Amino acid sequence: MPDFRIREHPILPVPGEAVVPFRWRGETYKARPGETIASALFANGVRIFGHHHKDGSPQGIFCANGQCAQCSVVANGLSVKSCMVPVTEGMAVEPLDGKAMLLDADGDLRFHDVETIETECLILGGGPAGLAAAIELGKAGVNVVLVDDKAALGGKLVLQTHKFFGSIEACHAGTRGMDIGRKLEVEVRSFPSVRLWTETTALAVFSDRKVGVLRGSHYFLVRPHVLLVATGAREKSLVFKGNTLPGVYGAGAFQTLVNRDLVRPAERLFVVGGGNVGLIGAYHALQAGIQVVGLCEALDDCGGYKVHKDKLVRMGVPIHTRHTVVSANGHEEVESVTIARLDPSWKAVPGTEKTFKCDTLLVAVGLDPVDEFLRKAKEFGLPVLGAGDAEEIAEASAAMFTGKIRGTEIARMLGRDVGEVPAEWLRTAEVLKARPGAVITEEIPGNETGVFPIFHCSQEIPCNPCTSICPKGAIRIEGDDILGLPTFDESACIACEQCVAICPGLAVTLVDYRKKDAEGVLVSIPFEFPKTSIKEGDMVTVLDTLGKVLGHVPVAKVRSPKFADHALLVKVKAPREIAKLIAGIQVQAPWVSAAMEEEVQRIDDDDVVCRCERVTAGEIRRHIREGVRDLNHLKALTRAGMGACGGKTCPSLIARVFREEGVPLAHVTPLTQRPVFMEVPLGAFAGVVTGEGPTRDAAPTSVGPLVGGV
């Protein structure tokens, strides 16, 4: 039986064996305890979960975050999102394949009253912003209910194995995201006034200023004095031929499989999108032993931090700027991807197509805020604030700090004596939201004596953990601004290597001339790959910041000090003329990224815009050209936006088609949103009790069909 589990990882502990039996299409497989159906299927080599009832197209995962419904399956007789439901022993899972599933309700049904709960503050979302806000509210003694639809708190922090930027004091810079999530959870659990409801889905804000939530199989109404929406973001999609093939999915889905569940969902990966999400996702793939064939970005340069881009390039991943994806190719699954160069009018240039063999296409083209609850609360007059990505898309470090500010503001609104939000907090929040600054030419010091660090960061970003970690206080930021670049007093270095280890961008090396000989000088390089992949005496290829090969040098020493937090510090012996230029070690051979010979042409009107209802760009264009300017009208004509995801994925894509047709979005009426925003069994509203007693043994959720959408 195939095994697609990760057995070795440089950062993450590998969990125990899969011991929970379940059935997929009548065949027995095994899952790890607590593993979702989607992850368990991927771990057993299953990537096609069913076929669409409209055109028979294969269906798999896309978001793995409960925001779409492409991964829906039938589990123990009910339609469920496989990315959200854990496997239970003996569970019978089948493809949905368009079947209307109704649980047999024969026998005595038991009901409970739909309870209304009062609380001072309801927080939607247990990610960095929600947890940071709950901590401040807990300090002030505010009664809080925090709900999150996942089993573990932390939001996307759970998926982040890399070290964070920012400052140590403001947002735990230099600490891995997953560890930050644990720290926040431990702190928030210390406050008795804060109740944490995990595996709880917020469904809607209603006109009577109550919020409907589903906790397990019980439906509640919560009446808060103040609502804080910290629901994060959902990934944007992209229209191209083959965009719904199994194997095309978002960066968050990929990180969920790899970093949360240690499932290896790909052998060869191609990434679309050069923001931080795409760049980091590609790096996480390399750490998991997955080949990264390449990354394409439509802009002239990647929009993410340059240190993330440089890290990939010097590890052997080519980045194709001013390129876009033309098609994902394959019959039932992704088999290759075709990209092409863009002209000044953002059109693909014929004849520039290149096709690369891969089995997975990771789409990382930006995020949209999950702000339905925020907008409806404002509409209905419920006092509400937003925090994190639900308010403004930014890095998780910024989300933590804005959550801290919102928690303080809400405590003041509720009459707690917490004082004004300090002006410095507001300044820090804005700095952490700052976009990458200008790129400055890297300056290599001329000194060739003693020992000192080389800073290979050449872009202004909010980051300064190296200044805090230096035991001699010899590293400073130009102008004492967190956005500046570091400088160093070379005479003060004691070769502790802590600055090398803590840098989130792996952009610091240490050059030691004290024991130089005919073979060269020692250079310490951070390395976040398995210990088994490198050892003393190996010959490695070293590269500069831009990925240029400098030469092949021997490894003199490999160590893993505790302060390096699972990273390795690799010392190489390098010739004097290249020592200060070395920025990293190549981990992927050039042949991995070679293009294939065949080219695949794009057929625009066949591109799927609404993945739930399989509505194509051609259908949308036809109605636009007939004069349709209302998305609600378009929905009635085509069913675009009427599918199981509730119109969360396609509206931005439909807007793009309107723009391509020359229709200003100001002339387009948006979709009207109505409760509920997330799927819920109808029986929940009636208070049907499930999963208790002999009458309801097999039901994982409630009686009746699912309702939801906009």
Note down, in words, how this protein is organized.
The protein folds into 5 domains: 111 residues, Roll (Ubiquitin-like (UB roll)), CATH 3.10.20; 183 residues, FAD/NAD(P)-binding domain; 129 residues, 3-Layer(bba) Sandwich (FAD/NAD(P)-binding domain); 140 residues, no CATH class; 60 residues, Arc Repressor Mutant, subunit A (Orthogonal Bundle). The strands form 10 sheets. Strands 8, 9, 10, 11, 12, 13 and 24 form a 7-stranded mixed sheet that branches. A 7-stranded antiparallel sheet has the order 25-28-29-32-31-30-33. The chain has 710 residues and is an alpha/beta fold. It is built from 17 helices and 37 strands.
Topology diagram in text:
Layout (H helix, E strand, L loop, with lengths): L19 E5 L2 E5 L5 H7 L6 E2 L6 E2 L12 E4 L2 E4 L10 E4 L19 E10 L3 H12 L4 E4 L20 H4 L5 H12 L5 E4 L2 E6 L5 E5 L2 E12 L3 E3 L12 E3 H10 L7 E5 L3 H12 L3 E7 L8 H8 L5 E3 L1 E7 L6 E6 L12 E4 L2 E4 L3 E3 L2 H8 L4 E3 L9 H18 L9 H10 L18 E5 L9 H5 L5 E3 L8 E3 L9 H5 L5 E10 L2 E8 L11 E5 L5 E11 L8 E7 L1 H4 L4 E2 L22 E3 L4 E2 H9 L5 H8 L12 H10 L19 E2 H4 L20 E2 L3
Helix pairs in contact: 2-4, 2-9, 5-6, 6-7, 9-10
